[in-house]
Amino acid sequence: MQIERRSRPDRVKAIAVNAGLALLETAGREAAATFLEDAGVPLPVIARVLSEPDKRRAADLR
């Protein structure tokens, strides 16, 4: 059984994810992915937040 975390222990990455999601809306997927990668967000997280909005955490921008 996998337990889903509701918040990130790394506040810097949490801020980066929200900024990346805002960038997704304004500049597109490629710009958001590049930003998130440069911010040190792991690739599986980048893929999840950009491609699977229903699997984003409640604190993420929707």
Write the layout of secondary structure elements.
Blueprint: H1 11-27, H2 29-38, H3 43-51
Helix pairs in contact: 1-2, 2-3
3D architecture notes:
Helices cover 58% and strands 0% of the residues. By secondary structure, the chain is mainly alpha-helical. It has one domain. The termini are far apart.
Shape: globular
Number-wise, the strands total 0
Low-confidence stretches: none
Total of domains? 1
Distance between the termini: 26 Å
Q: Which key phrases capture this entry?
A:
about 60 residues, mainly alpha, single chain
In short:
By secondary structure, the protein is an all-alpha fold. It has helices at 11-27, 29-38, 43-51. It has one domain.
